Amino acid sequence: MKKTSYALVVPALILSALLVSGCGAFRSKKDWDRAQQEAPLEIPPGLDTPSTSAALVIPDVGSGAAAANAAATNAAPVSDGFILADDVETAYKRIGEQLGQGDLGNVLSHDDASHTYQIAAKPGRPESRPGLFRRMFGAGKDGNNQDAKDAPASAQGASHTVVLTVNPSGTGSEVRAQGDADGVRRVVDALKSRMGSK
Question: Crossing angle for the helix pair 181-195 and 88-100, nearest 10 degrees?
Fold first, then answer.
């Protein structure tokens, strides 16, 4: 009985060793041995390589906070809009009626020929609700007041200038707002909900 078990075990071990060793023994030449380096890419005539001299500029010490504050106060204007089913004239008049209520802000100027309104939008209330960890671990009322004090000037009461333009768009009209992000968001959201945009 021992001879039959050895007769089965030994060939099984040899076969399993061959299987585990993989198929590398059957390959004569490896592809990566024959690989040659390609020539570097060349830029076609008439095109320039982009400048990489300022790609990794290290800023001066202490200039990060000042640059961040300057970027926050001089942020690029934001644009947003929506589509109405009305023609341009009707949409312009309806928007004028909504702005005439005065709850979104004061109309500084309007141009009937180019269908444009310039608005001093009223600021929204600053977000005074604390975050999850502050609520969980208790910052109290002083933490909420500190958040309101730390809010940017745009959220503390300065008005936002927003320019509304009505343009034709297919069978309807497109209302486009440009200006400060908070003002654009408030004006567009209010007009969308009141006027039933597409």
Answer: 110
Q: What is the dihedral of CA 95, 96, 101, 105, to 10 degrees?
A: 90
This prediction has a pTM of 0.47
Q: Is 11 exposed, middle or buried (0-12, 13-18, 19+ CB in 10 A)?
A: exposed
Mean pLDDT of 135-139: 74
User: For 83-113, how does the pLDDT look when each residue is reduced to its tens digit (9 = 90+)?
Assistant: 888 888 988 998 888 888 888 888 888 888 8
Please answer whether residues 175 and 164 qualify as being in contact, where contact means their C-beta atoms are separated by less than 8 angstroms. Answer: yes
Q: Dihedral sign, CA of 185, 189, 191, 196?
A: positive
> Cβ(12)–Cβ(5) under 8 Å?
no
Measured in degrees and rounded to the nearest 5, phi and psi for residue 116 equal -130, 140
| Separation CA 165–CA 73 (nearest Å) | 24
